[in-house]
Amino acid sequence: MRIVHVIGSLDPACGGPPMVVARLAAAQAHLGMDVRILTLACRVQDQVEKSYQQSIPHFRQITIHALPGQAMIGRGVSQTLSAFARDGMPTIVHIHGVWEPILRQAMFAARKTNTPYIIAPHGMLHPWSLSQSKWKKKLALALGYRKLLKGATAFHALNADEAKHIRGLGMYQACHVLPNGVFLNEIEPLPAPGSFITQLPDLAGKPYILFLSRLHYKKGLDRLAKAFAIVARKVEHLHLVVAGPDDGDQQRFEQIIEKNDLTSRVHLVGALWDKTKYAAMLDAACFCLPSRQEGFSVAITEAMAVGVPVVISKACLIV
């Protein structure tokens, strides 16, 4: 059995799905499957693959097919899946996301070769997500996406709420609920307590709240900034560490922090990976993610695995 995962990018700066795909594919490869990942090559493709090989158990057993650019999407996806169909090995295509061109082409190619495909929307069919660029998505569904979604053999939902909303769109195929997970041996052994604080001397002896995710409106950074302004007035020396790549919301967040005269107590440290990420979690007083919508956050799962208390919004759907 061959499993082909299709995703727009493996770059973890794009959010949780690349890490989910990498870990799921690695677990399947460890079970003896022939596992491939079909993706677009990102600017740092070699570094990303090397990082995954070093941090995710069994990732080296996966074959990566990285297409060179947008112009090659249609032909590259079609040729790759057609070659798999010709070699006679039963193949399943597992598509991660909905709207990116490479995913649409993968659905087309799978239908053309009579290859069964499973769609994992990763929250992209949730009502909140569909309300963003609402008319573009309605038009896309009307012009062919709904037919492609209905052609899927099954859906992979991250929680029961997501499965309910998939059904609400008229998709009545099998819908399997499979939450995200982590390899504990990615995390263990944990870094030494205090190793993250030594990198930020301003935090010495002071508790801090940790936010670790993309700096995007969806992640509720504005909510966090306003809540921190209230708590900071009551808890002396409390700080806030914000870790993650800017995805359009950093400037607004900084404006709220500056307006509340809290700049000296807020630290934007950029993206954190691997052991540095777990060190930041370990030293935190709590991990906070006040998202407006989540499928099944990898960061929350990692924080709980580390053992740090988590404070999250109901929209994170961790129950």
Comma- or semicolon-separated keywords:
7-stranded parallel sheet; 5-stranded parallel sheet; 12 strands; 319 residues; alpha/beta
Give an overview in words:
- The chain has helices at residues 16-30, 45-55, 73-86, 101-112, 127-130, 134-150, 160-168, 184-187, 221-234, 250-259, 274-283, 298-306, and strands at 2-7, 34-40, 63-67, 91-96, 117-120, 154-157, 174-177, 208-212, 239-243, 266-270, 286-289, 310-312.
- The chain is built from twelve helices and twelve strands.
- Helices cover 40% and strands 18% of the residues.
- The two termini are 34 Å apart.
- It is globular and about 65 Å long.
- Helix 10 (250-259) links the parallel strand 9 and strand 10.
- The protein has a seven-stranded parallel β-sheet, sandwiched between helices. Strands 10-9-8-11-12 form a five-stranded parallel β-sheet, with helices on both faces.
- It is α/β, with parallel strands linked by helices and 319 residues long.
Give the SSE layout.
Blueprint: E1 2-7, H1 16-30, E2 34-40, H2 45-55, E3 63-67, H3 73-86, E4 91-96, H4 101-112, E5 117-120, H5 127-130, H6 134-150, E6 154-157, H7 160-168, E7 174-177, H8 184-187, E8 208-212, H9 221-234, E9 239-243, H10 250-259, E10 266-270, H11 274-283, E11 286-289, H12 298-306, E12 310-312
Parallel strand pairs: 1-2, 1-4, 2-3, 4-5, 5-6, 6-7, 8-9, 8-11, 9-10, 11-12
